[in-house]
Amino acid sequence: MAKTLPKTDVVIVGVGWAGGIIASELTKAGLNVVGLERGKERKTEDYFMVHDELRYALRYELMQDLSKETITFRSNEKIRALPMRQYGSFLLGDNLGGSGVHWNGQTYRFLPYDFQIRSKTIERYGKNKIPPEMTIRDWGITYEELEPYFDKFEKMAGISGEENPLGGKRSNPYPTPPMKKSPPMQMFVDAAQKLNLHPYILPSANLSENYTNPDGVARAACQYCGYCERFGCEYGAKADPVVTVIPVANKTGKFQIRTHSNVRRILHKGGKATGVMYIDVTTGEEIIQPADIVVVTSYVFNNVRLLLTSELGAPYDPSTGRGVIGANYAYQVIKGSALGFFEDKQFNTFAGAGALGVSIDDYNGDNFDHSNLNFIHGGVIALTQTGARPIQNNPVPQGTATWGKEFKKQSLHYATRTLSVGVQGSSMAYKHHYIDLDPTYKDAFGDPLMRITFDFEDQDREMAKFLAERCADIMKEMGADNVEYMKELGPYEITMYQSTHNTGGVIMGAEPGTSAVNNYSQMWDAENVFVVGASSFPQNAGYNPTGTVGALAYRAAEGILKYREKGGMLV
């Protein structure tokens, strides 16, 4: 029999960026909050002197153990899904802080177009521009409405940057100046300007200078060591939940974190949640935590899975298009980079930071005319200098032998003579792209694994080819002697790393028939349940999702406080 604990005001499922922000805001307002984290405790000291590429980047020290829990994948409904047993396309974070610990720190704001994509696309190009199977949605909130929450997240995290000339209007400048501009970044800027494009230093959660945020959290500036992605930051210079919002919540004395607590069900009755049931994985004991409000802030797949196993919300049925939980899964098109080989120039690309780089948005969103193109949206193009760590970076020109004397010679020659201009493309939602419970594979507790059904579409292939050509144009203008770039996008490969930008499944919208949550992240089907994260995205934009997730979390925290005071559905 499960043990029942005393009721709390709020229980949070998953303590990463979204959970940490909401815990900080609610405890500052006086609420008692319990945070359930299925992983272990983390602190900055865990990363002292651990620049170990093999341990962290290749053996995935900070990631979920796929032998214990994973997802299954299939490219279409005609084939059987199989479990992902080794990391490839994306990396699932584990322990306190979640993916917010091992991210790079690139902190863009989505464009105004992104939040009203369906209506804006029809307004400019007509309904026929959207293929019948594409299920893109407006978010039920505009950029202008979300802008104050972007501002709040950036001030908390100390984002370093300069204004995007093609982005939405800002109420304030970034709280810290942009990162340093390296020689390759300057080459990109010069080339982009010659092509009449609009470069800007990308917004970075790697601090450009020492900073104290509005909560009084002081952090040191980035050291440009190049160990950000897949690593925790030993300096605390990279904003993550463990060094920003979680300490603020802890300081109130009203936040209790329970690690090793795997939530299996949201308990509900009469259209409202009563709490959650979780397993203490150290003892195997079932525990019920009653709460007035349940906030689900784990990763995309876990958010969807918990709602489906709890039978909360209508499951999506791709054959009819009805239901909402699991609908509109989207990813990202990280294909099309241009690799430039230089004979007479050398670069120190081993130094860097996760969010050191320069971007253009001339081919992102609807910043360019799509009238004669067979796709909508686009993506951000950037030269980033994230740190060319020695094991994973060994570029040689196409046609080079893959071993032996020639390979060694070319590897040594081009180790410091190679640059890359890359693209981060959007991903549109389709009727047949979704997440559901796998009918065959289960976890250690007997619950079904999440199943992904997804592949690249003609939209993605056309967009990727177009953006790859634009990357090549810039690289050629930068003076590369040899430029290689993608000519054709093949099928989606879950075995090859692309990004950890999975989105959708509990999407946001203006009405319950086509969305799972309102623009405060409040569930239409259970007014005291809030589901926060990239699972809210009706489709994915041409950017990293974290800045938008942070903004949504601050808005959700505001909504929870309003609900606590007045009850009912928020408007």
TrEMBL record:
Which keywords fit this entry according to its UniProt record?
FAD, Flavoprotein, Oxidoreductase
- The Glucose-methanol-choline oxidoreductase N-terminal domain sits at 142-328
InterPro entries documented for this protein: FAD/NAD-bd_sf, GMC_OxRdtase_N, GMC_OxRtase_C
In terms of domain of life, where is this protein from?
Bacteria
Any one GO MF term held by the record is:
oxidoreductase activity, acting on CH-OH group of donors
Q: Where is the Glucose-methanol-choline oxidoreductase C-terminal domain?
A: 435-553
**Gene3D superfamilies this protein is in?**
FAD/NAD(P)-binding domain (3.50.50.60)
Q: Which PANTHER family match?
A: LONG-CHAIN-ALCOHOL OXIDASE (PTHR46056:SF12)
The name on file for this protein is: GMC family oxidoreductase
